[in-house]
Design brief:
It contains ten helices and six strands; from the N terminus they run αααααβαβαββαβααβ. The protein is α/β, with parallel strands linked by helices and 220 residues long. The chain has one domain: 3-Layer(aba) Sandwich (Rossmann fold). Strand 4, helix 8 and strand 5 form a beta-alpha-beta unit.
């Protein structure tokens, strides 16, 4: 396993007002709506989630970094667990023409409203039971998804990612390094079930048999 940061360049572009999310709205009600992963979460009011999850090309640098690091080439098969609307997968197909992509997400709304070019490659499903043969993919990704699982399902998802990947694997989860980042994470999150420090995440990866790479998002 190795710590790799391909995601902070996107994460830091978004301005967040942590206290507003808990002062101006009923956070519990907003979280209940967000956990349905429907239209409100993706394209509704910001208090319920993304506030409009639209393609703007911001994932292109991440796709370029992933392609370079994992030496992706035409014919390689890539899986995104928690693919959302498939923006990263789309950009990967642009960076490496000829790769084969697949995505799975628990949100039917996200899949049905995914980027048109990759929509046929996506399906609704759960990270804890991936409908793919063992060793099917040259690279398995899961970006800002697995922290939304309770620890018992998290272990299953990590084992499933390990099972279906035959080469590269890269996971990004939310984490905290100090009490300020912990408070900000708790203020901002709507769907998290697993709240761990980097050391705890690394322990969980090892205990689950996950051998791939990983990265963290911090709310500074």
């Amino acid at each position: 396993m190795a710590y790799l940061d391909f995601i902070s360049k996107i994460h830091l572009r978004t301005q967040r007002h942590y206290l507003e999310r808990v002062i101006q709205h009923d956070k519990a009600v907003c979280a209940e709506v967000a956990l349905q992963y429907g239209k409100d979460y993706w394209d509704g009011d910001r208090k319920y989630g993304y506030g409009g999850f639209r393609y703007d090309g911001r994932w292109r640098p991440v796709a370029e970094d992933l392609a370079a690091h994992y030496q992706l080439k035409p014919g390689d098969k890539i899986l995104d667990v928690g693919c959302g609307k498939g923006f990263l997968l789309h950009d990967l197909t642009q960076v490496v023409p000829g790769i084969q992509v697949a995505g799975i997400d628990i949100s039917r709304y996200a899949v049905e409203n995914a980027k048109e070019e990759v929509r046929p490659c996506l399906q609704v499903g759960n990270a804890i039971d991936l409908p793919y043969e063992s060793g099917s993919f040259d690279l398995v990704l899961s970006i800002t998804t697995l922290h939304n699982l309770f620890n018992y399902d998290l272990r299953k998802a990590l084992k499933e990612i390990e099972r279906v990947g035959k080469a590269g694997k890269y996971i990004v989860v939310e984490s905290y390094r100090n009490e300020r980042e912990k408070a900000n994470l708790l203020y901002w999150q709507l769907t998290c079930r697993s709240f761990y420090t980097p050391r705890e995440w690394e322990w969980f990866f090892e205990e689950s048999g996950y051998t791939g790479d990983y990265g963290f998002i911090f709310f500074e």
